[in-house]
Amino acid sequence: MTETLKRTLRDSSAMRWAMLILLSGLTFSTYWFQDFFSGLKGLMGSEMGFSSEEFGRILALTTIANMFGMIIIGGIMLDKWGIRVAGIVFGGIAVLGGAISALAASGFFGSDHGSMLNMIIVGRILFGSGLEVVCVVATRTIVKWFKGYDLALAMAINMGFGRLGSAMGTALSLDIGGGHVSPAVTFAATLIGLALIMFLIYTVFDIKLDKQEKAISDKSGEVCDPEEDFKFSDLITLIKNKSFLYIALLCVTFYAAIFPFMQYAPDLLINKFGFTQNLPQAGEVILWGSKAIGASSIYLIFFLFAILFAVVPNNFENKKTRFLFKSGALIAFCFYLFVMKDILAIWLDNGAKTASLIPLGTIIFTPIFGNYVDKKGKAASLMILGSLLLIFAHISLSILDNVYIAYFGLLSLGVAFSLVPAAMWPSVAKIVAENRLGTAYATMFTLQNWGLFLFFWGIGALLDFVNQGIPEGQPKDYTIPILVLVGCGFISIFLSFLLKKADRKQNYGLELPSNSN
Ligand SMILES: NCCCC[C@H](NC(=O)[C@@H](N)CCCCN)C(=O)O
Predict the structure, then answer these.
(1) Does ligand 1 have an atom closer than 6 angstroms to the CB of 162?
(2) Span from the CA of 442 to the centroid of ligand 1 (angstroms)
(3) Where are the bilayer-spanning segments (predicted)?
(4) What is the C-alpha separation between 148 and 501, in angstroms, rounded?
């Protein structure tokens, strides 16, 4: 590669992906900390005496600073201070919040119910103030490194790290805590601390990149596009744009029906469908662990050979070779499922572990749907489809009582949770000019936090209300709290239709492939 082509660190693909990993530590750990309480809801009731309303209050108050402008303030600070300082400050606030919650759960501020609850909430408020700005910092940093390269893929992978954090936090917290809440909170808080160290390592490269880019622009006299500062008048202009207004409201109703549901999903599966929350014995963990590692390694080796085979030119031109390869892959997969069947059966019987499949599934589905939207378009129609799936999911998990239909419900929720974000976030970039994207995301995230606040808290309070007189530890009726979420699905469909209609008038091309714009 010539000197002119490979001028800075960001022109090296290895560097770009390494930076994405260093940066995604914060995404992974903050999503983990946001969602890990879901697997501990039952234990928080039995060990700490927290009611469902108090559980919901802890989650809801995580969003409070964001509801009142923290994301917009964070965005303005990001513009003024730059990625490094904003990342360290807001990542640091998240670490501090995590540490306060962990100390509170261990009884450091007092072991009575009130002290624990209030100080966990103080920690969560601080954590929440950092969480959303960290998400904006991550988006901005990815654009800095990947503009002109695989930007959409990099964003999808970063979101994948977040979903992996949610899934692992939900699935493993009970095991990590060993039957207690406090060790699981300490572990989750430590993860954010480690991620901040990863971000500090990232800043060394960020400084180097800035120096290289400055040297190039000094030499060539190139002037970079000035970043537009946040202005309140931009906010008014945005809200007056019908397509933006509908997509922002859709972001509120859609995410309100998903994120809060996920916090209660393990407890719902345990209470309504009789899933377990038992911890495996030490011996069983060793047996399953070795089986899973063994089977996965064999499968991985098979696939490494398959990839090697596939990249050798002309291998797939022969029909017989193609048939042999496909049959081999199928046999290997059946063998894998056979070896893993006990582990899968136990996994699918456990409330938290089954619920974790929702964010886990999106890691595979979101890039597939993202690719579909890039190539074929139909973003507004896919949002209608996603909202329909959301309605089916919440009906099957509330008024219906069949565990097999419930599995389908969870699956359709996973598909909806992949479809809508894959269609929604790139559509914002079609509606809003690039230099206003920061303001647009900050506005959407702020409104989204209002919806999350209402439903995080509302579901818990409603759950207590409809189950008055039922002591902690006895099965609770989730029908009405989840049925309320069906309403969000209907409003989402209505908004998606309005968006499609507005797009026909305003011509943003939401139904067209991305590369045709
Ligand atoms: N480039 C924008 C991607 C947004 C992804 C989206 N994130 C949010 O909605 C944030 N408000 C973070 C919320 C974190 C809570 N778990 C997402 O789908 O995660």
Answers:
(1) yes
(2) 11
(3) 14-33, 58-78, 85-110, 116-139, 151-172, 184-205, 244-265, 285-311, 323-348, 354-373, 380-399, 405-425, 437-458, 478-499
(4) 32
With 70 as the cut, is the pLDDT of residue 33 above it? yes
Ligand 1 centroid to Cα of residue 205, in Å, is 26
Q: How many A from CA of 120 to the centre of ligand 1?
A: 23
What is the homologous superfamily of the domain 12-215+232-279+350-516 according to CATH? Answer: MFS general substrate transporter like domains (1.20.1250.20)
Find out whether the beta carbon of 139 lies less than 6 Å from any atom of ligand 1. yes
Q: Which atom of ligand 1 is nearest to the CA of 448?
A: 11
The predicted-structure confidence for 255-267, as pLDDT tens digits, reads as follows: 999 999 999 999 9
31 lines ligand 1 (CB under 6 A): yes
Number of Cβ within a 10 Å radius of residue 230: 19
Task: Look at ligand 1, atom 7, and give the residue with the nearest C-alpha.
Answer: 135
Output 171 or 228, whichever has higher pLDDT. Answer: 171
Please report how many Cα atoms fall inside a 13 Å half-sphere around the Cα of residue 309, on the Cβ side.
16
Encoded amino acid at 198, one letter: M
Decide: pTM greater than 0.95: no
Mean pLDDT, residues 140-167? 88
Q: What is the DSSP letter of 422?
A: H
Provide the ipTM: 0.96
476 backbone dihedrals φ, ψ, rounded to 5°: -110, 150
Could you tell me the residue ranges of all domains in the chain? 12-215+232-279+350-516, 280-349
* pLDDT above 80 (res 306): no
